[in-house]
């Protein structure tokens, strides 16, 4: 029985093999290979090549991991531009506020000579006139507390002391006790208290009721018509030129700020003058002298 089974088995095996072998010359249809999705992935539970080597390497200390690269920042949409808010108005500093304010009219400089009144002195007291411009200087004269129209002819370097004439002498007073009279020097005009004099020969020139009066020793006073008064166009500045005359001729005078002395007294003057006299019936002459506005 066993022999029969073995014989049948031997006969059936070649038949099966021949059935699977394609006939010669007949094209064999090849099965379409399906793509392997995870070809790169090793099969699960597959032995890893070089496992022994990796195991050996695992015994060595692992190198420090390289710092991970920072992820690129994700671009954000730009925020919509908002209108800039107007800055809150702050109060201007005092200096800026003063600059923004309209400039006040600048006070003109105080020219000399000018007239002053004694002030800030008790009525029973007097103002000392000193030989030098300091509080220790010798007192050479005094001014009453009610004195007015005091002519100031000079200032010291500190601007705290002024020189005045009292009688036939000059001296220094503290300016904090004096107050300037306004409007002494008006445009194209002469102060009514103006008086100009000269020596060798003696002469005099001053304003009169209707013009100017020119005087000389042993001669009648000449009443002159004041034809023109000129100034430099500076407010309060005392430089003056004048033209006067009568039937005999013309008198021209040029008055300018300058320290002047009459040569006969100890008084000081702050105005110098040059006078030209000419006419048909007299020779032309030029005179010089000093002027004062003190009353």
UniProtKB/TrEMBL annotation:
| Keywords noted in UniProt | Signal
Ranges of biased composition (kind: Pro residues): 62-80
Region called Disordered, residue ranges: 20-108
Q: Where is the signal peptide?
A: 1-19
Residue ranges, compositional bias (Basic and acidic residues): 31-41
Positions the record marks as coiled coil are: none
Decide whether keyword DNA-binding is in the record: no
Superkingdom to which the source organism belongs: Bacteria
Q: Is the keyword Cell cycle in the record?
A: no
Q: Where is the composition biased (Low complexity)?
A: 51-61, 81-103
Q: How is this protein named in the record?
A: SH3 domain-containing protein
Top-level taxonomy: Bacteria, Pseudomonadati, Pseudomonadota, Alphaproteobacteria, Rhodobacterales
């Amino acid at each position: 029985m066993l022999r029969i089974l073995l014989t049948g088995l031997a006969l059936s095996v070649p038949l099966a093999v021949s059935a699977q072998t394609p006939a010669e010359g007949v094209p064999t249809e090849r099965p379409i290979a399906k793509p392997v999705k995870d070809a790169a992935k090793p099969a699960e539970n597959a032995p890893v090549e070089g496992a022994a080597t990796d195991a050996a390497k695992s015994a060595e200390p692992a190198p420090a991991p390289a710092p991970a690269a920072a992820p690129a920042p994700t671009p954000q949409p730009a925020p919509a531009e908002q209108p800039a808010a107007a800055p809150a108005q702050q109060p201007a500093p005092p200096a800026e506020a003063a600059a923004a304010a309209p400039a006040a009219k600048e006070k003109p400089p105080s020219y000399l000579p000018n007239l002053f009144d004694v002030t800030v002195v008790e009525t029973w007291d007097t103002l000392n006139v000193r030989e030098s411009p300091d509080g220790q200087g010798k007192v050479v004269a005094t001014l009453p507390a009610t004195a007015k129209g005091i002519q100031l002819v000079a200032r010291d370097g500190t601007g705290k002391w002024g020189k005045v004439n009292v009688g036939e002498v000059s001296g220094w007073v503290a300016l904090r006790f004096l107050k300037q009279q306004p409007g002494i020097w008006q445009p194209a005009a002469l102060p009514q208290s103006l008086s100009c004099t000269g020596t060798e020969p003696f002469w005099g020139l001053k304003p009169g009721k209707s013009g100017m009066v020119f005087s000389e020793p042993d001669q009648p006073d000449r009443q002159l018509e004041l034809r023109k008064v000129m100034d430099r166009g500076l407010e309060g500045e005392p430089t003056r030129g004048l033209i006067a005359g009568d039937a005999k001729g013309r008198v021209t005078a040029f008055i300018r700020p300058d320290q002047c002395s009459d040569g006969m007294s100890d008084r000081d003057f702050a105005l110098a003058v040059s006078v030209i006299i000419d006419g048909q019936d007299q020779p032309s002459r030029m005179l010089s002298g000093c002027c004062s506005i003190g009353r």
